[in-house]
UniProtKB/TrEMBL annotation:
Protein name (record): Calcineurin-like phosphoesterase domain-containing protein
The keyword Transferase is assigned to this record: no
Species lineage: Bacteria, Pseudomonadati, Pseudomonadota, Gammaproteobacteria, OMG group
PANTHER family listed in its UniProt record: TARTRATE-RESISTANT ACID PHOSPHATASE TYPE 5
Signal peptide boundaries: none
Gene Ontology MF terms: hydrolase activity
Amino acid sequence: MSIKTKFLLLLVLVTTLFGSVYQYITEGNIVSAPVADGDRVSFFALGDQGSGRYRQHAVAWFLERECRAAGDINFTLLLGDNFYKKGVSSVDDVLFDEYFESMYDGPCLMGMPFYAMLGNHDYMGNPQAQIDYSVQQKGTGRWIMPGTSYRKDFGTVGDSSLLQLYVIDTALPLDPQLSKIKNADRNAVWTVVASHNTVRSFDAVYGDDLELLEKMKGLANFGVDLYISGHAHTLQLISVIGEPVYVISGAGGKRPYPLVEETTTISVDQRTLKQRLYARSDLGFAKLSVDPEFMEIAFFPLSFEGTSIFRISRECKQVKEISECIAPL
């Protein structure tokens, strides 16, 4: 048994043994998430979490711990594949409670909204039920999915939004969804597109999706700074010349995928076209924080390696390729 596996089993054991005590101590002490209306916004992002098994429990425990430690998380973004293996059947499906409500029931996570999107496994069931669960404000009311695609603005800087988030669904026609991004008012400091499917990846299962890449090649020209996805069960940060920065956070509850050995793609003139700045085949999640000057991307793997943080400077981005403006902290 590997050290990584032993650590995960130990974490699950501790969570199981002390879960009831922790729940008793914190019962009734829900911590309300700060409202995302200022000049700083922070959120968790994780996908492929809906296994209902020990891996999801372990990540949920870690998520709650980091939520309480940070104290500034405004919301959580769920990147799809919310309910393995075949989605949910209706708004009354017990999986809503087992895989979501009861899974993320610590006092910090109980006090925040979860913005969700559909993944390929969610489409194997009744995808409309996940939208209806949101619209009807079922359960605790934390589940937010107003449609298969939607836009949400967070924070303010003068007359502009701090963060403009677009959730898109690559299983549906992309042209009308991308047109909304292209034709939107450019009054946001940071623009992020989120979807379940990866476009760029160094995992050994999917890798780059060339068909999707061709359809989405204009994102950088639309002012998109970052594309975040799940699907590949890994944690990754990828830089590509002429494209948005790619964040993959698909390690929320299923067995992680292996990574390929390749770390860069070099052009004939020796320019680095594609580079993986961070990649882990571990369970875990990402945290993103934005203010008027910087975007910070932190990865929290369930391993002994600890947190890794990267920063993108807004000032740098205004004069250089965004791929040149990423620095580890």
